[in-house]
Amino acid sequence: MARVVMKFGGTSVADLDRIRNAAQRVKREVESGNEVAVVVSAMAGVTNQLVDYVQSAGSLYDLREYDTVVSSGEQVTSGLLSIVLQDMGINARSWLGWQGPIITNDAHGSARIERIEVDDIIRRFGEGQVAVFAGFQGVGPDGRISTLGRGGSDTSAVAIAAALKADRCDIYTDVDGIYTTDPRIVAKARKMDKITYEEMLELASQGAKVLQTRSVEMAMKHGVRVQVLSSFEDKPGTLVVDEDEIVEQAIVSGIAYNRDEAKVTLRSVRDTPGVAASIFGPLMAAAINVDMIVQNISADKKTTDMTFTVAKADLNRAISVLEDKSNGLTYDSLDSDPSVAKISVIGVGMRSHAGVAQKMFSALADKGINIEVISTSEIKISVLVAEEYTELALRSLHTAYGLDSED
Amino acid sequence: MARVVMKFGGTSVADLDRIRNAAQRVKREVESGNEVAVVVSAMAGVTNQLVDYVQSAGSLYDLREYDTVVSSGEQVTSGLLSIVLQDMGINARSWLGWQGPIITNDAHGSARIERIEVDDIIRRFGEGQVAVFAGFQGVGPDGRISTLGRGGSDTSAVAIAAALKADRCDIYTDVDGIYTTDPRIVAKARKMDKITYEEMLELASQGAKVLQTRSVEMAMKHGVRVQVLSSFEDKPGTLVVDEDEIVEQAIVSGIAYNRDEAKVTLRSVRDTPGVAASIFGPLMAAAINVDMIVQNISADKKTTDMTFTVAKADLNRAISVLEDKSNGLTYDSLDSDPSVAKISVIGVGMRSHAGVAQKMFSALADKGINIEVISTSEIKISVLVAEEYTELALRSLHTAYGLDSED
């Protein structure tokens, strides 16, 4: 007997037929003698519709009311799946965020889970009952519904798995696992059997949208074994596990890309102590996140060129902030370019292997792809290139690191 | 300063434009210095969609899950209206059934309100805050969402008005008041300025679908002054009040009709003590409501013909029950007729006036309309006629009782 959390995303519960399909998978786990908690997203499209309503209702909407409205999508799915399960003869009941309760902090709209009461759930496991949680939601200290941010049902699932000390947390979705890179772009992309939390975290935050970043952090922190698998096919997916569970570690596990950033360059900034703060301070104050940063010292050593990236959606605001001379910032010109892509190679094996970066740079150079910015972390190397080279860069790197599938 | 409850039905909050229109009315009350609680239905069509989902999910669905799913419609509207009000500069917040809380019994799907906690709401009135309640819902003793049955938002509104000791409870809807009869059938129907609770109760249960019957019972019990008015026009509606508030009482106030019943006749039932119980007992056991009942003693005084009405939707089940001879019921033949209409004249003035029934019978006879069944109460006379005479009967009676408008 195992204790299992099964999470079904929006496309896996998009209509009643798919909810029935999900229920069949739940039934199979129950009939294997497992204790089962299910976490559901809203039916595909519902959350977008509700968010549209909220945004049309008021420009500066109250996040507590946003949560009240938007959480209703998962509420509906949890009730419907419970009914379908009962109809199949499975004892099941729905649990809303305030019923568990799943207690969060008061950051409405992007709340963090603080505690989950599971005693009653576990007692009901003993009676053979399946718990069907509405994902994405909890209850704040103000006694009102809170939501966890877009993609939050993944985080709900992992948090519930941690609280229940579940043996695994299966994330059913519309892809069959985590790939070495985007298979829509690189035909030879391979599905990975296993990936470490750290790598998944880099992949998730670098734009591979399979799992919410926060859910991976939480899985790593609590040692929850996460599996990403298809709800439409019967085959194993990708296990996200601790590094020591992976015997033979590839140096590079995957290659991610992100086309949502834009490049900003400030030319001939006066190079004095504190210049970085005078640029990034006002951006931070405007809640604009800066990702990659490069500073080139100029020939005369009196001015410097500063290049960095921001989210495309923030580009215009960033320019306004930087053009506001009241910040005391002095530079010759401001260039911006939204047509860039960030390409990242990721792998825990990098830690113990030299030459990984060199291989990346030469593979790109061979194809005539100019690298505009470089940033690195312990298990990741990211480069910024012109957006038009995205596909070529992904394919070249995928081959260079020996990731291509053999068929 | 007054304390006001404003209830907006599904067509009055059908989309964001209509929600803004409702918000304008709320704003006007707030700006008049009133304390305001609002009760909202789901956006028109939403509840039907959710009920469809539930019915497709499982044939014998769990009413607790039904409540979880179906209550989400009002949840969405309460959040959206709160955002729209805030956007207009009005301090407002949504209240779900479990937040007040509005405590009900455990009859999921058709729960009754037992208690409403209003201390916090009243305290917030003092801070100028408008309370926007999700109608139709409460929380049961099991800590799960309960709903009050279709049309239950009217009952929510009246119950909240009673708990708040509100000065009035305004029910905004897509008609501008209560009419002497259905204006779609009788062009000369008049809007009433006032109607008594008792008359409204008879009208509501006789098929005038403006107010949920239970909400009228509750208004009568607690003396809540209810006004039915249009959310699309600026004019007074119809006040539903205590009898002693109406100075000059018409003998007949209104004429209702109901085409949802079917007639059943059992011929030559053996007439022995207990025969009625042997017919209606099994029907009751099958949860089939019987409305009008007539028993004719036969010439030989040994058998009797029994005629009664059931809801059309229950007719086939009723026939099955009556044809099941294991009940010990003996009769010659069973006739049924779904093509009937019940016409009712209603008025508290009837109590002190003779000849009301006679006028009804002769008005119908003048038009050649045959009366099949008669039943009466203190303030109502109902007759069953062939369905095809519905419009003719309504118009004739409307004229006969002097209800026609003069324009």
UniProtKB/TrEMBL annotation, chains A, B:
Domain ACT residues, every copy: 264-336, 345-407
Keyword Kinase: yes
Listed EC numbers: 2.7.2.4
Name of the top EC class for this enzyme: transferase
Metabolic or biological pathway: Amino-acid biosynthesis; L-methionine biosynthesis via de novo pathway; L-homoserine from L-aspartate: step 1/3; Amino-acid biosynthesis; L-lysine biosynthesis via DAP pathway; (S)-tetrahydrodipicolinate from L-aspartate: step 1/4; Amino-acid biosynthesis; L-threonine biosynthesis; L-threonine from L-aspartate: step 1/5
Single GO term (MF): aspartate kinase activity
Catalytic activity, as annotated: L-aspartate + ATP = 4-phospho-L-aspartate + ADP
Keywords: Amino-acid biosynthesis, ATP-binding, Kinase, Lysine biosynthesis, Nucleotide-binding, Transferase
Family of the protein in this entry: Belongs to the aspartokinase family.
Protein name per Swiss-Prot or TrEMBL: Aspartokinase
Organism of derivation: Kiloniella antarctica
